[in-house]
Amino acid sequence: MLHANTILNKSALKSRAFEILNKCYERNLENSGIIFFNVNSKPFYDMAFCHGIGGVVFSLYRVSKLIGEDNSLSECFSYWKKELLNDLEIFLSIDEDIFYPQNSFNKQNPSEKHTIDKCNFLNGVVGAGLVLQSIQYDCDDWAQFLGYH
Fold this sequence. Notes:
It contains five helices and two strands, in the order ααββααα. It is mostly helical. The protein has one domain. A two-stranded antiparallel sheet has the order 1-2. Strand 1 and strand 2 (42-45) form a beta hairpin. It is globular, with a radius of gyration of 17 Å.
């Protein structure tokens, strides 16, 4: 919406974008809806780019590039980046297959088991790594192929 506002110059888009952003500041891992895993007493949240912490961090990073300095955004971004690093470390420490929790993947067949492809772009370490690299080097042009502008 912020990007669309810069193109269309519609203040309603900018206002709505900031309403959504303010709601994001109230989110944390516990109320985010992000999938929780516990593999051999190693608890962590999904750090995927597609639907996990990696995607949250990347979205906040992109928003910060559009709006500039903002204390609330900086605090929110720092929180989620720290969580991504923590959960990524746990994820990388697990050698065996990681299965999605029951009822989290296929609601029609909740007993069906699905593993995480650990090296996958959307669900694995590749996406999380690209997010962290983008932040470190302030270079995220790769995201254009996903529709980010």
